[in-house]
Every structure is written in C-alpha cells, then in structure tokens.
Amino acid sequence: MMLTQTRRAFGKAAFAGLAAAAFAPMGRARAAETPLAFQSIWINDPEFIGYFIAIDKGWYKEAGLDLTYLPGGPDVIPQASLLTGKADIALTSLIETASAVSEKGATFKIIGAQFQKSPDSVISLEATGIKSIKDLVGKTVACPPLSLGTFKVLLGLNGVTEDQLKIVPYAFDPTPLATGQVDAVVDFMTSLPFIVEQTSGKKASYLLFYDFGLPFGQDLVTVNEETLKTRRKDIVAFMRASRKGWDEDFANPEKYTKEYENTWFKGNGYTPEAALYHSRIQVDLMKNPNGVFAMDDAWIASNLATLDKVGVKADKSLFDTSILAEL
Predict the structure, then answer these.
(1) Among 73, 9, 5, which Cα is nearest to 39's?
(2) pLDDT tens, residue by residue, 48-74
(3) Class of domain 32-117+216-326
(4) Which of 70, 110, 120, 181 is the most exposed place for a label (fewest CB within 10 A)?
C-alpha cells in the first residue's frame, strides 16, 4: 500500500504563479570542478533557504562542486529524478521512498533528514477547540486525496473511526478553513496557519502527525546506492556545504527571507510576512544537537515504526548514516 503525504498550502495568489515557480530558473553555483544535480521536492520557498544561501555564498564551489539546483513542484517526482539520472541527490518523503524500495526495487538510500519532525499536521481555527485528534469527532476535515490513507491511519491510532467525522477533498486552498466551511484541513503547518490568519483575522492552531502516533521525518536527503558508492566524496562535500547554509540561516532567518523575496522566492505566492513565518517556525523541526541532517538509531526506529503502521515494508537498510559520520 503506497500512501502519499500532503504538500504545502498557498493563498489564492499562489495558484497563478505556481506553474511558473515550479519551473523557475535553476540556481547554479559558480563554475567548479564536479557537476552535481540536486532535485528539490517543492517550489522555491523558505523550506529550502539553506541551500539557496550555500549556492549564493559559493560554498558548493568551495567544496569542489558545480551544483545544479532543480526546483520541485506539483508535477515533479523527486524519486523519478533519481531513477532517471536527472538528479544525483534529491529531497524525498519517507513513505514514497520506502514504497519505491519495497514495491519497485529501487536502490535508494536515505543519508540525512532535513526535518527531524515532518510538518504534516491537522490545522484548524483555534476557536473550533480542536486540541487532539479525538476532538475531530463530529467535525468536517478537508484532506488531500493522496494523503487520505495516512490520515485514516492517524485517526485509528487515536481511537477515531472514519464514520465519526466527515472527510472532504482538499485542494490546498485556505478559503474553506478561513471561512468556516470546514473545521480542519490536513496540510503542512509551516505556511497554512499564518495564511489562514492573514485571510480571516482569526487565530489558527495545528496538531503535528508526529505528536499523535505517526513520527517521521521529511525532506529526506536521498541517493541511489550506486551514487553513494561511486561519488562519496561529492556527497560529503554537498552535505557539508548544505549544513553550513542552514547554520547561516538559523543565525539570521529574517535577513535571508527578505533578501530572497524578489529572487529565489519570486512568484511563489507568499507574502513577505508569510515567508518569514515559514522561516522561523521550521527551525525547531529541523535542529538537532548533532547538526542538520542528523539521524540516530532512535529516530530511524521511530520512522520504521511509522512505516509499519501505514503498511509499508522497510528495515534499517533503507537508511545509511555513514556520510553523517564524515561531516
């Protein structure tokens, strides 16, 4: 069973520029020794600001890499970029990556985790009083069709059956939640709560899947097994430069969010305020005492337990922490 996680939400202004943003001009580091293609998982927004900083500062070049940054988008499948050789490294989601390995024989290895905790959440207006998954009983929840399976597992883990609430399709439009047409939506909490508050003037809240029985990471740094074997030096160089970019962002997220408003973020539908909210709120989901991308045994075990709960077969061999040991 392959269950697909939700992606980000945007205000209505985003939809006009979504396709263009998804295929925005590729960021390319200055001339360097070794070409390396990096596939992102979504359109250019603060979720990837650490990589943008490393590109603009020339840190990939200093590491000996000629980096090509490939934006993601609603029609981009990062795993496919790895399989076809379009990308050497990609950001992927846990369930899709594990499913590709177990069901299609892909030789993917997860070598780092950008998000220690996935931003996947149930988002609602605070006035609705939804403080736990059990509080969804009797409510109407908008859920993306591809996330429905995962959401039903979440309900079951919290003692709620599907017939105890009404589930309707969700098309990444904040309007139904802002206007009270639905009580909650399933989406990333890095952007939607703020957008809803901007739209409605009402306070929003969220429940992380991670905190209610489905702990997993997001934006997993993934490579093919063959790439790991043959381009180890390049991968280590990429991870070091990327970590440096994220450390720089964490030190001053306001600076780079504003700086990239009319460059990397142009056309993505964010207001400057929403971009700053995104930059700030994601930090606690990413930080680890051992540095960005860290994965320890306990974290890996929790991700494998989540895969088991949603019916996807996987074992510890899906993850490789050897690169992290060299950073």
Answers:
(1) 73
(2) 999 999 999 999 999 999 999 999 988
(3) alpha beta
(4) 181
What is the gyration radius of the CA atoms in the chain, in angstroms? 19
pLDDT confidence band for 11 (50 / 70 / 90):
very low
* Alpha carbon distance 268, 153 (integer Å): 32
For the domain 120-212, what is the CATH superfamily, name and number? Periplasmic binding protein-like II (3.40.190.10)
Which tokens is 46 given? 């603060």
**Is 80 exceeded by the pLDDT of residue 14?**
no
Q: Residue 15 has what pLDDT? A: 33
If DSSP codes are grouped into helix, strand and coil, which group holds residue 286?
helix
Unique residue bearing structure tokens 């988008």: 73
Q: Given a cut of 80, is residue 29 above it in pLDDT? A: no
Only one residue has tokens 């609603």, namely 74
Same fold, 32-117+216-326 and 120-212: yes
Q: What is the model's pTM?
A: 0.90
When the pLDDT of each residue in the chain is averaged and rounded to a whole number, the result is: 91
In a 13 Å sphere around the CA of 62, the CA atoms on its Cβ side amount to 12
Domain regions of the chain by residue span: 32-117+216-326, 120-212
Tokens standing for 197?
A: 């508050």
For the residues of 57-114, what is the DSSP string, one character each?
A: TTHHHHTTEEEEEE---TT--HHHHHHHTS-SEEEE-HHHHHHHHHHH---EEEEEEE
Query: Distance between CA atoms of 172 and 6, rounded to whole angstroms?
Result: 9
User: What percent of the chain stands above pLDDT 70?
Assistant: 90
pLDDT at position 32: 44
- Tally: H helices and E strands in the chain: 14, 10
